Amino acid sequence: GDGGGGGKGAGGGGRKLPTCAEHDLENYSMYCVSCRCPVCYQCLEEGKHGKHDVKALGAMWKQHKAQLSQALNGVSDKAKEAKEFLVQLKNLLQQIQENGLDYEACLVAQCDALVDALTRQKAKLLTKVTKEREHKLKVVWDQINHCTLKLRQSTGLMEYCLEVIKENDPSGFLQISDALIKRVQVSQEQWVKGALEPKVSAEFDLTLDSEPLLQSIHQLDFIQMKFPVTVPPVPLLQLEKCCTRNNSVTLAWRMPPLSHNPVEGYILELDDGDGGQFREVYVGKETLCTIDGLHFNSTYNARVKAFNSSGVGPYSKTVILQTSDVAWFTFDPSSAHRDIVLSNDNQTATCNSYDDRVVLGTAAFSKGVHYWELHVDRYDNHPDPAFGIARINVVKDMMLGKDDKAWAMYVDNNRSWFMHCNSHTNRTEGGVSKGATVGVLLDLNKHSLTFYINGQQQGPPAFENVEGVFMPALSLNRNVQVSLLQFS
């Protein structure tokens, strides 16, 4: 305890050297490391610290001062780092504030750009609607003017003929009657079939599909984390959603969960149904795809892969799909004109309009020989139903065969005509009535189309060199009801 007090005296004194607590005449000159106290020579001679580690007092003083200075330097460095860190945090506060304002401004600008783009697109779409309306109005006005002129000419001719008929002079009458009869016949022939039908309908075949855009808007969000971009992983086929219907296959897939790599699109591949090479049948962002117009009674292999800016990912597992042995179809409510009325599980069709409207079948044919029959359930007032085939994008507000997307036979109660591109050919005697059956034979091996009424071929083969993908098609008005009968 006394040694400790002497140590304090040595640390606190500066002008007078402290003396040993046990030997008043001796100054401290050594330092016992073991006892951690200063000692004098006499203490050493007496052997009190004989086996201890004893060092010169001045050397130990300098050593401890150096250690303390070094420790202080370390603390000073940490204090300096802390001050710099505080400055950094204060700068970070300012940067967060500034960046927040910048991001808000950028977000507002991006959203405003989207709104502007949508506004511009709305203007474009409105322009299309306006043009379509003006076109329809012009066509109708032209038809009104043309019909008015024809009607005026016919009325004038009728009035003149009535006056001539009143002529009591046979010789005078016979001098002009031949020319007048021919003129009346020519006037009658000018009212060709279809001349008294509107060239356009009041309906606008313009449908705006805004659902994908709405989904994109709902999914619009920030990318919270940034990962190194690599190729996408293997897509997972959703086998419970993969199916076949007739000669169409539907495939669905999704990306594995917790996949952070962005996907820009997918590539769906299908073989030829005969074990041949794969070919791309779809490239896009959707995760569900239906392929129509495949071969019946065939086995197809399908696979899908994803891609992004880094490249194309690996293929999924291959799924095997079997198409139907025989074509089976109903009328398709999803693509039919809205005036078409379907019943009997979509196997019976009629119409609630006096104008002809088109309905397609749910099957698509591209190969093989296909035959189906339709039963005329109701036939009133001698209408002209039309039977045949068409492309998926056929015009549906007029008689089948009036555009270049359909090949048809239209028939009344006495005769029939074949029609494609509004060209009427092969007038054939023999019509339909209630209870009649109309058969359609599509031979894509010979690329021909033939029609039958009540089991008998109606005229020659109607069309040849038909190639591509075709849907069964029918046009009728409210005076007719037709049902599908059989397939082969």
TrEMBL record:
<dbReference type="InterPro" id="IPR003877">
    <property type="entry name" value="SPRY_dom"/>
</dbReference>
<feature type="domain" description="COS">
    <location>
        <begin position="165"/>
        <end position="223"/>
    </location>
</feature>
<dbReference type="InterPro" id="IPR050617">
    <property type="entry name" value="E3_ligase_FN3/SPRY"/>
</dbReference>
<dbReference type="InterPro" id="IPR003961">
    <property type="entry name" value="FN3_dom"/>
</dbReference>
<dbReference type="InterPro" id="IPR001870">
    <property type="entry name" value="B30.2/SPRY"/>
</dbReference>
<protein>
    <submittedName>
        <fullName>TRI67 protein</fullName>
    </submittedName>
</protein>
<dbReference type="Pfam" id="PF00643">
    <property type="entry name" value="zf-B_box"/>
</dbReference>
<keyword id="KW-0175">Coiled coil</keyword>
<feature type="domain" description="B box-type">
    <location>
        <begin position="15"/>
        <end position="57"/>
    </location>
</feature>
<dbReference type="GO" id="GO:0008270">
    <property type="term" value="F:zinc ion binding"/>
</dbReference>
<dbReference type="InterPro" id="IPR003649">
    <property type="entry name" value="Bbox_C"/>
</dbReference>
<dbReference type="InterPro" id="IPR013320">
    <property type="entry name" value="ConA-like_dom_sf"/>
</dbReference>
<keyword id="KW-0677">Repeat</keyword>
<dbReference type="GO" id="GO:0005737">
    <property type="term" value="C:cytoplasm"/>
</dbReference>
<dbReference type="InterPro" id="IPR017903">
    <property type="entry name" value="COS_domain"/>
</dbReference>
<dbReference type="Pfam" id="PF00622">
    <property type="entry name" value="SPRY"/>
</dbReference>
<dbReference type="Pfam" id="PF00041">
    <property type="entry name" value="fn3"/>
</dbReference>
<keyword id="KW-0479">Metal-binding</keyword>
<dbReference type="InterPro" id="IPR013783">
    <property type="entry name" value="Ig-like_fold"/>
</dbReference>
<dbReference type="InterPro" id="IPR000315">
    <property type="entry name" value="Znf_B-box"/>
</dbReference>
<keyword id="KW-0863">Zinc-finger</keyword>
<feature type="domain" description="B30.2/SPRY">
    <location>
        <begin position="308"/>
        <end position="488"/>
    </location>
</feature>
<feature type="domain" description="Fibronectin type-III">
    <location>
        <begin position="232"/>
        <end position="326"/>
    </location>
</feature>
<dbReference type="InterPro" id="IPR043136">
    <property type="entry name" value="B30.2/SPRY_sf"/>
</dbReference>
<dbReference type="InterPro" id="IPR036116">
    <property type="entry name" value="FN3_sf"/>
</dbReference>
<keyword id="KW-0862">Zinc</keyword>
